[in-house]
Amino acid sequence: MPGGAWPARKPQARATRSPGQAGWASMATWRRDSRLTGSQRLLCSGLAGVLSLSLTAPLELATVLAQVGVARGHPRGPGAAACRVWRAEGPRALWKGNAVACVRLFPCSAVQLAAYRKFVVLLTDDLGHISQWRSIVAGSLAGMVSAIVTYPTDLIKTRLIVQNMLEPSYRGLLHAFSTIYQQEGFLALYRGVSLTVLGALPFSAGSLLVYMNLEKIWNGPRDRFSLLQNFANVCLAATVTQTLSFPFDTVKRKMQRMVRGPLYQKLQHQMPVGTRK
């Protein structure tokens, strides 16, 4: 799902009241952190992303397998799917598709950062200020753009996850890209991309919902939140947004799994036991 719903840089927040407004509007002046260059910031975020993806790869695999469905007579749920993969293909199979996810992270972050800057400029007022809700919208739009641009790699990651690693139909990112393009056509690389766009709507709505109620939750102003409170805010926002957008993500995974052409029967046979339909 599109990410980046929260501001990428920490703004200098100040309260202003416009004529005719009933309440306070939190505004932000954007300043670049001079301690790091743009490439250094991108590298740091990329490395942090690679670490987090690698640590949570088994959970991602289990979620995807649970989303694409299991056969009757087998236990359902992410945990059962992961156990079946472990027994059938070995422990290394729990990291299927993780290399593609890590490679995808760098172009995805670069596109998202460039798009975010453009949207911030478009949404900034004449005084150089941008409200927090507009920065959330900018982050959501940037995440949507980056997800669409790098969508083929997300589809390939799903295909690598659902195939049997012991009898692979795809040997890696480039081989999968070439095979899908030649046997299913270019549009097959974007199968399910519409769900990414539709899923961005509840994702953004969830972000705004959480942000607008933070002061009520903590009974205090946002600029006085502690580090622990900010961490809890991020976790809460992630929980709400992922829950709202999860149905769209499930349908997208099912569409990504769909195969047309000569590979259909082969992939159906090679899918991990208990995930065939």
From TrEMBL:
GO CC annotation terms, alphabetical: membrane; mitochondrion
Gene3D superfamilies to which the protein is assigned, alphabetical: Mitochondrial carrier domain
Keyword Repeat included in the entry's annotation: yes
Region (Disordered): 1-24
Pfam families associated with the record: Mito_carr (PF00153)
UniProt similarity note: Belongs to the mitochondrial carrier (TC 2.A.29) family.
Protein's recorded name: Solute carrier family 25 member 43 isoform X3
Gene assigned in the entry: Slc25a43
